[in-house]
Design brief:
Helices cover about 35% and strands about 20% of the residues. The chain is α/β, with parallel strands linked by helices. The protein has 14 helices and 17 strands. The strands form 4 sheets. Strands 2-1-3-4-8-7 form a 6-stranded mixed sheet, with helices on one face. The two termini are about 35 Å apart. InterPro entries: DUF7033 (IPR054297).
């Protein structure tokens, strides 16, 4: 198969073409530049013309990086090639026309996918929440009601359906549904310092909440007898559950020093060392959870990773940013520079959904330096605090079925500190059951 691309914005074009054909489909292709304004895919004597409605409008490098280039509204397409009805079309039209030798697709699937995967939208829309994060409510996907759809996967299926329609008969990459369960260890223990204990107990008294005051006081006393009685020490519960389900999981540890917003636990502490040993002995994996102040600070980020590596005698090359603090493309560049394998920070904590529009692992792209990175993104599909803290109703079964349809990765996050009572433990078990 030959792919002909317009002779402009070549780094961006080569990236998205490679993601589609190499990373997602796993098929061979060659690329040639041409003077035509559209993308052309040639299979023997047959052609697919994908109308270029985006990149050909910008002949100066990076000139597309403007919030005025984000559509205010989008169209939706339904035809014989779309895997779902009402496919969101970010760039281009909705028509696909076929004759005996060619297909002409007005949907600019490559520019639309580039928009979702690179998240350049978050760079040009200068809106941040109180934690310095791009708010999901400001995204086009949220505003146009397609945040719950992995539309990049839908674009891939659309392309594949067109290719097979014109006689392409090579096999594509075989995939299987993959559940990836992760735990961010923000607080391994509820009772950390005497000062925090006084503050926690005193807060209940000030609120005249004597029932919970005595519950907390009792737990504090029990913890002094045996640290495993701590409300946040839920590791034995997790290990037993995963033994039953035959699941292997990731535990992301932090070494951050922001006393207010990081866990502030010491990896050299004997109790923490026992937890680390138990995680590894049970066959689970350890990853990196960079602290609150690290996401755009190379010095802090590297120091925290170094501290983790010094205390955990296994390779550390995967993880997720604390508080999901992530700034495109700076945070990705940090992970890439430090030879990390994959990150899983891209998720909107309050809205949920598919922040990248994708449920496949894919290489990130630094759109400012215009280069594909080695580090991959595994898009987070669900986080416990979305339903616990924000009271958002999420249909986990539906999301799981969607990811299964595309044989994708379902990345699941539950904090160990959100299992402190039987109700939350049952909710966790039920949630896992829904996505297995």
């Amino acid at each position: 198969m030959k792919v002909f691309v317009p002779n402009n914005n070549l780094e961006e074009r080569m990236y998205i073409i490679d993601v589609f054909f190499t990373t997602f489909l796993g098929v061979d292709y060659t690329v040639e530049k041409h003077q035509n304004n559209d993308w052309l895919l040639q299979v023997e004597d047959k052609l697919i013309v994908i109308k270029d409605t985006f990149f050909s409008n910008f002949h100066q490098e990076l000139s597309y990086l403007d919030k005025n280039n984000i559509p205010i509204t989008i169209q939706f397409a339904t035809n014989e090639y779309t895997p779902e009805d009402n496919l969101p079309v970010i760039y281009g039209g909705t028509t696909i026309a076929k004759n005996s030798n060619s297909i002409t697709c007005d949907i600019d699937i490559f520019a639309s996918a580039f928009f979702m995967l690179t998240r350049w939208e978050e760079y040009v829309v200068e809106e941040l929440d109180n934690h310095g994060r791009f708010p999901g409510s400001s995204s086009l996907a949220y505003k146009q009601n397609f945040l719950d759809r992995p539309i990049v996967n839908e674009y891939v299926e659309l392309l594949w359906n067109m290719l097979t329609s014109i006689g392409y008969n090579k096999e594509r990459k075989k995939r299987n549904y993959n559940l990836i369960v992760t735990h961010d260890l923000d607080y391994p223990f509820a009772w950390t310092t005497p000062k925090k204990a006084i503050r926690k107990l005193g807060g209940r008294i000030l609120k005249l909440d004597f029932v919970n005051f005595f519950k907390l006081l009792l737990n504090f006393i029990k913890t002094k007898i045996n640290y495993k009685n701590d409300n946040f020490y839920t590791f034995d519960f997790l290990f037993n559950f995963y033994d039953q389900k035959k699941l292997s999981t990731y535990f992301f540890l932090m070494t951050g020093s922001n006393k207010k917003l990081d866990g502030c636990y010491n990896l050299s502490n004997k109790k923490i060392k026992k937890i680390i040993a138990a995680i590894l002995n049970k066959g689970h994996k350890i990853g990196f959870h960079p602290g609150y102040d690290s996401h755009i600070n190379e010095k802090i980020w590297q120091q925290e990773l170094h501290t983790l590596q010094e205390n955990v005698m296994v390779p550390i090359n995967v993880g997720r940013q604390h508080y999901l603090r992530y700034q495109v493309p700076k945070t990705a560049a940090l992970w890439d520079k430090n030879d990390m394998k994959w990150d899983s920070s891209l998720y909107y904590s309050k809205e949920g959904g598919f922040r990248t529009g994708c449920c496949y692992e894919y290489p990130l792209f630094d759109f400012l330096t215009r280069r594909e990175l080695k580090v991959k993104e595994k898009t987070l599909c669900f986080m416990d605090t979305t339903i616990i803290d924000n009271n958002i109703n999420i249909d986990l079964k539906k999301i799981s079925e969607t990811v299964k349809k595309y044989s994708g990765d379902f990345v699941f996050l539950w904090h160990n500190s959100n299992l402190y009572n039987k109700k939350l433990m049952q909710l966790f078990k039920k949630s896992i059951e829904q996505v297995i």
